[in-house]
């Protein structure tokens, strides 16, 4: 391998190690989740934020009253824990947040349109609760 190839491999390896060093494993919020598909990549529904919500850590997203949210999964509650859904905000007013997926309390939103009535339940993984 030439010098340039070695430098590229070294740079990529350093980047992956640097990224892994900043990834934090967080407490699981649930053991099961409901999704539209096995990758939770399809939107289950659209919801509207009923009130503002400030994210408590990097697993969550901020919500503003009236904001539309695409819902990708719904966590099944663990005894004694709240119920959270995951989604991404939607709308021109929120361009800076669009594409960011995170959890939010389901009782802060009103589901306005359901796209997938047929859903699947599956286990959550540790990756569902990592923070960057």
From TrEMBL:
GO terms classed as biological process: cartilage condensation
InterPro entries reported in the protein's UniProt record: OTOR (IPR042801), SH3-like_dom_sf (IPR036028), SH3_domain (IPR001452)
Gene3D superfamilies: SH3 Domains (2.30.30.40)
Record domain SH3: where: 42-114
Keyword Signal (UniProt): yes
Signal peptide positions (record): 1-23
Keywords assigned: SH3 domain, Signal
Ubl conjugation in keyword set: no
Record's protein name: SH3 domain-containing protein
Taxonomic classification: Eukaryota, Metazoa, Chordata, Craniata, Vertebrata
């Amino acid at each position: 391998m030439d010098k340039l190839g070695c430098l590229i491999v070294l740079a990529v390896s350093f980047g992956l190690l640097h990224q892994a060093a900043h990834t934090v494993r967080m407490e699981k919020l649930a053991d099961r989740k409901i999704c539209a598909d096995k990758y939770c990549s399809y939107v289950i529904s659209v919801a509207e934020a009923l009130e503002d919500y400030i994210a408590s850590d990097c697993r969550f997203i901020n919500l503003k009253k009236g904001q539309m949210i695409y819902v990708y999964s719904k966590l099944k509650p663990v005894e004694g824990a709240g119920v959270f859904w995951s989604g991404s905000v939607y709308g021109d007013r929120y361009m800076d947040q669009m594409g960011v997926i995170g959890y939010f309390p389901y009782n802060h939103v009103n589901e306005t349109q359901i796209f997938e009535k047929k859903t699947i339940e599956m286990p959550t993984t540790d990756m569902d609760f990592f923070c960057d």
